[in-house]
Amino acid sequence: MQFIKDRFNYLFNSTKGLILVAIAMIALTTAIWGMLSGPMAEMGVRDVVIRLFKMDMVQAEREGRIIILYHSIAMAVVAIETYMITSLLKMKSFFKMAINSIITVGYILTMIFGMGFAYFGHNWAFHGVYIFGLSLIFFAGVLLVIALWPWRKEYYQPDKTFARTKKGVDIERVAFFATALTTVISALFGAIPGSFFGNGFEVFLAENIIRLPEKSTMQYSIIGHLHIMLALIAIMITLIIGRWLNFKGILHKIAMPLMILGTVVLNLGVWGVATPLEPIAHQIIYTGATPSMLAALLLLIWSWNNLIKKGTSHLVKPKFGDKIKALVNDPLKFGPTWQMLYMNFTTSFLGIFMAIRLDEIFRVWPAREERIELTGHWHALSAIIATIILLYYGNIIGLKGKVRQLYGWGIILFSDIALAGITAFEMKRLFITEAEQQPLVNGLMYAIDFGLGALLVLLAIVMVWRLTDLFKKKGKWTNEKKQELSEEVVE
Amino acid sequence: MKKLIPTLIFVIFLLTSCKPVDLNATIPTFETGINPDVWANIPAGEFYFGQHNEIQKTEPYEIMITDVTTAQYADFLNLALAEGYVKVNGDQIVGYYPGDEFHGVKHEERVAAGDWMFIPLNDPSQRVNFDGKSFTVQTGYENHPMTMVTWFGAWGYCGYIGGRLPSEMEWEKAARGEDTRPFPWGEEIMRENANFYSSRDPFENMNSFGSRTSPVGFFNGKNYNGYVTFDSASPFGLYDMAGNVWQWTGNVYEGMHYRFMRGGSKDTYDMDLRIWTRNNATPTYFSPGVGFRCVRNSTD
Description:
Oligomer: heterodimer
Helix content of chain B: 10-25%
Radius of gyration of chain A: 22 Å
Helix content of chain A: over 70%
Strand content of chain A: under 5%
Largest interface: A-B, 38 and 56 residues
Shape of chain A: globular
Largest sheet of chain A: none
Number of strands of chain B: 16
Number of helices of chain A: 18
Number of strands of chain A: 0
CATH superfamily of chain B: paralog of FGE (formylglycine-generating enzyme)
Order of helices and strands of chain A: HHHHHHHHHHHHHHHHHH
Number of helices of chain B: 4
Largest sheet of chain B: 4 strands, mixed
Distance between the termini of chain A: 40 Å
Structural class of chain A: mainly alpha
């Protein structure tokens, strides 16, 4: 009994244990449900999985299933980010305990009962518990906003090398606060239309209505919600990585106000989509996205400069090669910002290019081609956020030496190969016709499957290792029980 | 150097993926026994429309039981060219379209009255050939659906034979009948039901040209030299209402120039073969995966 109690305590009562559980839940969901589409469906694996797990796949309910699937995964990601925030930032222990407990119960209920409802027959009690789980996550979000309140004196920033007001208000904390607050508000933009459409059980996927000239306020709200939630998850992980790397100095002082400005304006633009401001909403969104991306760029410049400086401090006059070597020496510290940069090629530049040439190029293609770009670019952004979390997680579990190198570079290379393949696949119509595309599509699919498959195998190895560790009396988990992320911020 | 080897192998592998595709590779020929000149009667009355089973109503009409074939379209072009209904304009066959009302809505593009492309000539995927005088069909493709045809080309054909393109509602009722089935033949889809992406029919080779069209009415329960198909007709006896080629529909919606297509195609996954799934493109769009069929007012 004590054996189980100790492990349970670690898994559900410590930051590192909670993160491990959430990553394991996502890994398991991805491994099973990833077999239901794409090449796995072509190879017949989908049919085997459906039979094996006795899934109930009604054709008309596909869109609803997908919505519940990605909400389930997203809620676990939100929980991971929340654990990281409550462990990295100062807050009252009551809030930390309450937030972590509520969000854990929330996302686990959401995942288990949501997926149970969506894929295993429609037990409406399950749907109720799924909604209850989402509500708990929302409530945990409200508590997080309260806990992050930056204008309390004990949270003031005494160190002048960080962004702070004259009075000492920690501007980085304001950025966390603004992101958390806008996330909670933006959740409503999904919850309200979700209830509206859910009442008639008429689900739809945003990519399927994108070309309709007349959209209802509720439809606009859904489109705004899905875009902003992913953007906010990305902004939050940028702030988290900045905190872990101990982002400071002049660039920090410029970046943090930009991050706040960008987050607020971006949200105003997206909320504007569901209001009479709709015609100019995109301009507001671009205005907001620019400072946010600039802030991330400043983090990248600072962290790369820092890695180079530290890695070459023993050399009197480091050469270019020495600097590059120092930069890439630790893939777990280099990787997150590299992935942020890479994101521009797979998501941001693509999105901007699409927006600029929408009518000339993309809207000449059939809607189903445009759908590939739309779904592709947010899958790519989600995958990049996941890899950044995994890179940080590699550091959290204390990987060292060769294992650290293999794990870090594995994540970077495998994901970047897959993402490059996805990007080329999305844009293939620019350089190849439908009739001639098959060999290229095959090649790209191999690259994508290889990258994603290898990434999942890597993750599975880590998960199996962590599972076996739990059976050891003095496993790694015993040390992790009391460790907090704030103690491991880079010096 | 050793570290570079895996990268080099990967790059070489990707480059080999770019080998050219033989678009004129031999295609197997099969006689399906389905006559593309037959029309089905669709009675007036209510039916379930869309994914959410909204109850709608149509007047009676007749609809072709198959997509328009390349042979039918070539015959039309020969007659229409002789009558001046269509003309040659460079490497295109064009015809007159009276234009749409323009509302100036965001993203809407003007479709003015004038000559618009019906089909492109000299495109490597075009199966209808023109020698300067008459139109013929590439051997083996006679009973395949007419593809590489714009919405104007589909609209022009149907108008010429005294019909029109089906509205989305008419198309859906003809595909679905009067119940809520997701596919024309019933609740589930198997590879033997339709021609879709990676459905392993005799016309596809996923290592080179990928998926190709199948003859109209191919999935009718017949055994083609060992390849057994399921009878996949709709309740009203229509074939290929799911898969093979997307089908242009006739609605012109206010504030948008896009035209809608239904039915999924040889290039899409099974989810796009569900009856309510919509696709759309500009009316000038043409593709090896897009065809059409016509309706006409009921003679009963």
